[in-house]
Amino acid sequence: MIASHSSRLPVAALAAAVLSAAAAETNEVADLGTVLVEGGALSRYRPETVNSGAFIDLPPEKLPMVVDTLTSDFIREHNPTDLHDLLRYVPGIETGGKSLLVRSPGQFSIRGMGGTEPAFDGVAPIGRGPGLFMDTFLMDRIEIAKGPIASLAGGAGAAQNASGAGGSVNMYLKGANLDGDRREFQENTSVGRDTVRQRAMLDANEMAGGDAAFRVVATADYYEPPYVDNGSQKGGDGRESYAVAPSAIWAAGDDLTLGFKSLFQYVDQPGYIGVPVWKGKPGAGYGWRESSCRPSDRSSYRSALFAPWADWRVKDGWLVKFGASAMVSEWDQTTREPYAAMPGTPEFLEYCRTGRWSSGEKYMTSGFSRSSSVSHNYTVYVRSVCETELAGGLENAFLVQPDYNYRSATGGFGTPTSRWGATVQDVATWEALTLLAGLRYDYFDQDGYASVGREGTVRYPGISAEALSPRAGIALEPVDGFVLFGNVSQTRTPMLGLRCADGSTPDESWRATQYEGGVRVRPVDKLWLTVSGYRIDQEHVPEFDNAGIVLDYDGRNASEGAEVSLTGDITDDWTVMAMYSRNRYTDKTVPRGKKGRDFERYPADTLSLNTSYHIPGGMLEDVVLGFGWRFRSKSYATMRGAFTDENLCFDPSSVFDVNASVPFSVLGGSKDWMLTLGIRNLFNEKYFESARHYYECLVGEPRTFELGLRGTF
User: Fold this and answer.
1) Which CATH number is associated with domain 11-712?
2) Burial class (CB in 10 A: 0-12, 13-18, 19+), 129
3) Rounded CA gap, 73 and 254, in Å?
4) For FRET with 711, which of 31, 223, 273, 639 sits at 20 to 30 Å CA-CA?
């Protein structure tokens, strides 16, 4: 245990604990040695290449699609605590409820389309729940590929992943490298009203001769959220989280490289699923820092990942990559849920009018929820990339990837499902022109399915389905620094596991088709401005009644909008990542003119501005100053994605952050250490950060002051 609610672990002790664990891993005495500061250099917010858009490394400006990247520098500078916190910096992404109790925890909506499941290295989906707890210090980078993505990585079936039509979230874990010995240490303490957080992180890469290396990344985190000091949950213990990610690499020959990545995580945190909303504020008498849970309600999570890989250079221009992953996760939770009245009932209408329950009780609850699950997720793939140079300056990259994924979960949270798939893709480049074409085939098979409907528990053994998902794109650079691009892509995913009340099954996959076009402009050498417009049409979507029974598969919706991003370096000492998203969602099953057809299911306008400036000289030489602003426009709380009432809404919000990195040399000390300072939510904005239903809305963190220490040795 790191600490209890009544005692807080000193920063030095927390740092020592992580260093001692790392020393034990290598059987060496922990010695800080000489610390070399690299934080004084300018952070880089734009990558040289991305991989998620085509499974080959390409400059982002050459792709006929949009891939947003959160680099390791950006992650380190903003110090988010998990994947959810990090993705809030990307406009157009919604986190959908940060709780194990939600139907699909750890999934995200992109471009107004929900259900995207994160994946490791773009190909290994992580399953239900892990996306809630991924510590971002473990990540080398996060890439978000926009638009329907089954044409590249494959669909997942509605029983496990109901959508994925808006894009994909791809996590790239830090791994061992042959660049030499390197150790990095970081510690951060954050304090705010009724909240405290302490984090310690260590990253050590050690060479073993000239052709092998080992790396260990470790984190420890203790956090007291405001609601464990207020309301019905007052007196509860805080959150404890630990993670360790060992990896290795071995250059076995001139043409063969072997390696593995692994990850072990443990989290124990207070149970929490949010509060009701009414006119932009907590409803039913709740305060901003309260919860319906009891002090004893907890959520715990444990997982283990092992991912071996091999790169074989068959000959010049031909690379074959073998990869596999096995992830087992276990979680359990106890939660006292806030009360819910179903839409249309007299009590619901009264709440919409007054913001109070008719009983008058402040902590009125729906009851007590207890659930647990063990999930298994296995992936194997072989990726062949053959690059050739043809006559006339034509370059061609042909990719073939067969793969297999199996997943299952106990506790009714995942029917055993196998997916066999194959991706074929060709990328041709000739001078200023890039053409991309791809086709994905998926075959799904379920060992059986158990559902609770009006006839009780029913099993459906031996379910199978097929899907074809195509895409095509073009990028043209008629003059240097000016790129026109466009794409058409489609995702088809069979709705395995869903049943109507009469037991009938769907007769085809849902389909999501995207049309996108845009322009990229380079105003200065390392700065790119991207403007794009898109439309996604989704058909054959299941529709549910208030009891969760599928009524039919005739649902249709559309999401259209525009995105603007400015990323890169304005000067050698000034970098920026500014993004804006405008989205309009339409539920076409709702008659024209009726509220709920066109409504702000998610914020229509979202903006994120982050910039970092490195002072090049003078008394403050090598000091780095940072600023961030996140804006979300008004949106409405829903019930199973459907409009509920005008009064059940979220007000617009603006959250400002400031930070600074100061080498000790500025203060007359050693250059070997870096002090980091930050204020999160500078003006103490009260806002909701995510929601499941209108009565389960999660509140954003209050203003916090952060002090940290960082260095490499």
Assistant:
1) 2.40.170.20
2) buried
3) 31
4) 223
Q: Are 680 and 704 in contact (CB under 8 A)?
A: yes
Contact present, 141 and 47 (Cβ < 8 Å)? yes
- Distance, in Å, from the CA atom of 134 to the CA atom of 245, rounded to the nearest integer, reads 11
Mean pLDDT per 10-residue run, the chain (713 residues)? Answer: 36 37 37 35 82 92 93 89 89 79 74 82 79 87 85 61 72 94 94 95 95 97 94 92 97 96 95 92 92 91 95 95 95 88 90 89 75 91 95 92 90 79 95 94 74 51 82 96 95 72 64 94 95 92 63 80 96 95 91 85 95 92 93 91 91 96 84 90 95 89 95 87
Burial of 28 (0-12, 13-18, 19+ CB in 10 A): exposed
d(CA 509, CA 488): 19
Residue 79: helix, strand or coil by DSSP?
coil
- One-letter amino acid identity for 322? F
Supply the Cα-derived Rg of the chain in whole angstroms.
Answer: 25
| C-alpha distance from residue 544 to each of 465, 640, 683, 688 (Å) | 22, 8, 41, 26
* 297 contacts: CB under 8 Å, gap ≥ 6: 233, 236, 270, 271, 272, 333, 334, 335, 336
